[in-house]
Specification:
By secondary structure, the protein is an alpha+beta fold. The chain has one domain: 2-Layer Sandwich (YaeB-like fold), CATH 3.30.2310.20. The protein has two helices and five strands. The model has no long low-confidence stretch (mean pLDDT 86).
């Protein structure tokens, strides 16, 4: 199922910081792969997607975590929540809101 990704201002800034830092080109590739999998196959085993109970969205949404890196000091994670969905009925487009792209807290 194809999902649409929207980014909070914070996540947008974090992605831009990775894109403009030549030293982070490998990390940027890993983050982009993770974002692509979130769009197409949120249950992909490499994402290790699970709820992150220490955070809540601005409107109380449940926050989820997906791995961009693993077994790396300060491994990067992508934090997101479901919604808001766009459209209605058969034309409904599932949306994921990317909240943050950051090293694991």
């Amino acid at each position: 199922m194809q999902r649409e990704l929207i980014f909070t201002d914070e996540a947008d800034e974090q992605l831009l910081a990775l894109e403009t830092n030549p030293a982070k080109i490998g990390l940027l590739k890993q983050v982009r792969k993770t974002l692509g999998l979130l769009e197409t196959n949120i249950k992909h085993p490499s994402l290790k997607t699970h709820e992150y109970s220490s955070l809540a969205g601005a409107k109380g949404e449940r926050i989820w975590e997906a791995y961009a890196q693993n077994k790396t000091p300060g491994a990067y994670r992508v934090f997101f929540h479901y919604g808001p969905n766009a459209g209605e009925g058969k034309k409904r487009v599932p949306v994921l809101t990317i909240v943050a792209i950051t090293p694991h807290p």
